[in-house]
Amino acid sequence: MTTGAVEPHEVTDRPVIRVGAPTERRNPLSVDLDLMSTRDVLSVINDADRRVPAAVAAVLDQIAVTVDLAVTALREGRRVHYFGAGTSGRLGVLDVAELAPTFNSPRDWFCAHLAGGPDAMWRAVENAEDDTRGGAAEAADCVRAGDVVVGLAASGRTPYVLGALAASRAKGAATVLLCANPEAEAAGSVDVFIGVDTGPEVVTGSTRMKAGTAQKLVLNTFSTAVMVRLGRVYSNLMIDMVATNAKLRGRMISILMEATGCSEEICRRALHEADGDLKTALVSLVSGAGVPAARAALARSSHQVRGALALLAS
Fold first, then answer.
1. Exactly one of 7, 10, 76, 98 is catalytic; which is it?
2. Which pTM does this prediction carry?
3. What is the pLDDT of residues 9-53, one digit of tens each?
4. Fewest CB within a 10 Å sphere: which of 35, 55, 66, 240?
5. Are residues 231 and 298 in contact, defined by beta-carbon separation less than 8 angstroms?
């Protein structure tokens, strides 16, 4: 009877790599994890997670450099790419998927590449992350000079990711490696190295835990800061959001009311006159200019609200 299990000789006959990254080391605080009560298991995991924000805070300077690289690239018509495998790659896909609805960013600004292709979002694709040539070929096919390429690899040594980074650098792109291994050998082969020191996982080697949480925090921080720098946020308000449901349409009204101090009725009317364009309605209400003038000022200021307001004030 076929069980789907892998026979022992099938495993031992295949290439084996023992990874020495911190994420593969054993956590002394969780060695009795399977003997603990449910509450204690949760407590150990939660205590470990508390380390992540501090570890991310320690690499903010490197994240800032990456943000500036990305802002420059996007302003010059280039793109930002994420290359990753497994959890790291899936987090890259998630970050890219959320940018368009949150900030109405052009869909070609950020591109996510996942080892094994779309199917790898839902299941492990055998040997995909070990495919150095596959990563290099994918990067060579789509990365252009002036792009920014961020490699996502918890261990800092994933062959698919390193292959993509090497090929991207050869094409003239700026390269960044984000990992949970401050000792990664690849640190010297990229323009920016972000090694987040999250230490051993509660479940040894399970990088979907602290390492994954750190990558999620870094990606959120990075992409949000990029959008702020590109004028997709006014004050701390989402002014480029896409209203695809009733809740978000209501949020647009709330944002206008918060930003302008105007009544709900006035904000609804302004949004209607601006054909649902939140930025145009905002500039019109704050400046007192008509919708055509507000729209023209936004066009002249690269759709920056503060820039448009300065033009209208002068």
1. 98
2. 0.88
3. 555 566 656 555 777 778 888 989 999 999 999 999 999 999 999
4. 35
5. no
